[in-house]
Amino acid sequence: MSESIYTLRVSRAAAGAYPTISDALAAADQLYPDAEQPVMIRVEPGEYRERVEIRRPHVTIEGETADSVRIVGSLGAKMPSEDGSGVDGTLGTFRTYTVLVDADDVRLENLTIENDAGDGREVGQAIALYADGDCLVVDACCIKGHQDTLFLGPLPPHEAKPGGFIGPKQYAPRRVGRQYFRRCRIEGDVDFIFGGARAYFEGCEIRSLNRDMDVNGYVTAGAAPQGGTQPAASTPKGEPYGFVFHGCSFTAPDGVAPDSVYLGRPWREWAQTALIDCWLGRHIKREGWWDWNKPAAHNCAQYAGAILYGPAGDTTGWVPWANELDVMAAAGYAREQVLAGVDGWDPEGGDGDAVETAGLSANGRTVHIETYCEDEPALRARLKREGRSAAFAGKTPADFEAWRIATRTRLYDVLGLSLMDRVPIEIRELSRVRVAGGIVRTHAMLQVERDVWMPFYLLEPSHPKLDERGLKRCYICPHGHQGAGAASVAGVAGVPAVDDAVRKFNYDYGLRLARMGYVTVCPDARGWGYRRDWKGQGDDENSYLRGTCLNQARMAEPLGLTVAGLNAWDNMRLIDYLEARGDIAMDDLGCFGFSGGGYMTLYLAALDPRVRKAFVSGYLYGVDDSLLHLNGNCSCNYTPGLWRLLDMGDIASLIAPRPLLVQSCEEDHLNGSRGLKNVGEQLEIVRDAYKLLGRRDGLRHEVCPGEHHLGVAHLAEDIEWLDSHVAECARA
Predict the structure, then answer these.
(1) CA distances from 213 to 183, 251, 255 (A)
(2) Helix, strand or coil for residue 205?
(3) pLDDT, tens digit (0-9, with 9 covering 90-100), for 54-68
(4) Would you state the pLDDT for residue 3?
């Protein structure tokens, strides 16, 4: 979809924007009456308490991040209806929704959709998302409620009791839609995923809330909409699939009792649910499923699982009328097969995401890493081998004065790069998988110095962008400091804690660029991801996501080294590797990073002219306001002696005249107390350098709404701008 056509903006405060999503939808119908024309609605951060009804096809509603954009309703089934209709004059289930999708080809992305009416025992059923359309995509969203959180239409053919279906689709034809949920978190307690759609859940977290009951809840309640006239143990004609969960993790917060939650029960006898390559927490009941006192379901319902992991991954205790699938049968539940229909629809356009389900730790939200590629042993060996190499060894005052002058000179090399040992390029491949869109993701290690290896992900599109010589265009994508290292940037799916970080910060920018056709390389920095040292190892979410470089700093700095220098060195060795491949357009090489990845992009581009374009997000501000005053950033930001010499604007000036795009967020706490004024002062230093070199248009500053995150609303245009200015810079 083109940003310049049929794009509407929603904001609580911005002038010229629509104040509600409903207002934007109404405006779309008035401004663009052709319903076949796609419409994009971009929603800025905020809480939107409204009921949203999407009845127009080809609509995309996209927020900045799922954490920052919340659509909230608070209706429950037991509440009285305004006109007295319904069973006992109450709303009933199907009039409680926060968001209704009653159209085809709708996409929801980076949103929280919530019904906060409360506990179903008090307020009854309370739907957050009512989805009844074909080719629906829900990506990186949080769907929150208690009972009946997510309804996947259509309704069953007949009511169990009169008036039970009162709502927007009560009399509508029962049309089975295809619905795709990717990397979402869906939470509730009783039947919180229910309905009759053909729905595929990929890399999602399915989170059961606590009710403090012996039977704490039910995840799914399925209903095949056509009823059933087929022989026992077969599916209704034309509907071979119901709900399919692939690479999902079924989790619960602390306090949910073990063996207390059923995976599902049949809302109607012909329910269908399959779990493929999923992780099941200890809260899931050993028997798996309940028949809801419907013996006929034993011959009709199809509950199945294959390749299951976790504390409840053993299916030997499942009820006898549920099926354990073999690997061959499980292959029949691939996304492209389940969702194909007659038109071959595949929302991801290729192979599915490879997931890490098998390795999830006991909390169901992180991966238990058994082997760590840490570098502490190498640093300790360096201390033994090189410690005190420049200690004073003279005998006279003149000797001391000479030593002092020489030592002072050496201290100017504050990053310590002159002390590094260059080693031959050596690569060790760890794994290789094909992910969505035909992208090949390779996990490998590069030797960067003696005894030190750097793990990285290499993403290679099936149809890469090429220059006029047929060489591949490439970006190095260092990671930030709150997303479990390179895995988040490379888009590794199925780790709920990482998925949360991706939804909050848009951390998967390496995968985003690969989907645009660029080869991307996503390295693990020292102290992060697979390079965590022993002090940071463990499955706890905080340590898993954030890592630390404090220990590296404490060991490196007395040796004349710095973390910033070590990371710059590693990334320079990565450039050496790309150069040696022979298939990369080195005169077009880019570096793209957010937050801590922005810091590494800034230093790498400043130090190595082989980087021809740079995208720095969430990292350009004065050290006084942002690093000294806040004093809460990672140790890699604090290089001894550096700030006496240079501020951030000075370092960024070293990139001129190569194209540089700097992205800031209006409410980013890292900007310091003066906010964007602090950023602006540093940008003026950089602008002066670009003006002096006659390339004032080679610097671009983009401001995004909201707090610390990577802005993706204009990502395609930003990358196009960088590409075009590389060519202009080369011509100049």
Answers:
(1) 29, 17, 11
(2) strand
(3) 999 999 999 999 999
(4) 42
CATH number of the domain at 376-731, please?
A: 3.40.50.1820
Separation between Cα atoms, residue 9 and residue 139, nearest integer Å? 19
Angle of the 563-581 helix axis to the 596-607 helix axis, nearest 10 = 70
CA–CA dist 549, 635 (Å, integer): 6
| Cβ-based burial of 318 (10 A; exposed 0-12, middle 13-18, buried ≥19) | buried
Q: Is the pLDDT of residue 635 over 60?
A: yes
pLDDT over 70 at 224, yes or no? no
List Cα–Cα distances, 134 to 32, 126, 687, in angstroms.
22, 23, 50
Q: How far apart (Å, rounded) are the C-alpha atoms in residues 407 and 122?
A: 74
% of the chain residues with pLDDT over 70: 93
pTM across the whole model: 0.86
Check residue 237 and give left, alpha or beta (phi > 0: left; psi -120 to 50: alpha).
Answer: beta
CATH class label, 65-230+241-347: mainly beta
Q: Could you tell me where the beta strands, DSSP code E, fall in 268-379? A: 272-276, 279-280, 302-306, 323-324
Report d(CA 708, CA 473) in Å as an integer. 28
Instruction: For the chain, report the end-to-end CA distance as a whole number of angstroms.
Output: 33
Res 232: pLDDT: 25
Instruction: Look at the alpha carbons of 263, 265, 269, 271 in this order and tell me if their dihedral is positive or negative.
Output: negative
pLDDT in tens, 465-507: 999 999 999 999 999 988 789 999 999 988 898 899 899 999 9
What residues does 139 pair with on adjacent strands?
109, 182
Where do you find CATH 3.40.50.1820 in the chain?
Answer: 376-731
Residue 146 has pLDDT above 70, yes or no: yes
The beta strands (E) that lie in 196-289 are given as 198-202, 205-208, 217-222, 243-246, 249-251, 261-266, 272-276, 279-280
* CATH 2.160.20.10 domain residues, the chain: 65-230+241-347
How far apart are the C-alpha atoms of 547 and 124, rounded to whole Å? 43
The two three-digit tokens of residue 551, written as one number: 């220990």
Residue 554 sits at the vertex; the CA angle it makes with 549 and 557, to the nearest 5 degrees, is: 105
Q: Which residue has the higher pLDDT, 58 or 549?
A: 58
Give the model's pLDDT for residue 269: 84
Residues with Cβ within 8 Å of residue 43, at least 6 apart in sequence? 10, 11, 21, 61, 62, 63, 64, 69, 111
543/554 Cα distance (integer angstroms): 18
Give strand pairing partners of 73.
115
Cα atoms in the 13 Å half-sphere on the side-chain side of 628? 10
The sign of the CA dihedral 63, 67, 73, 77 is positive
Query: pLDDT of 184-212, one tens digit each?
Result: 999 999 999 999 999 999 999 999 999 99
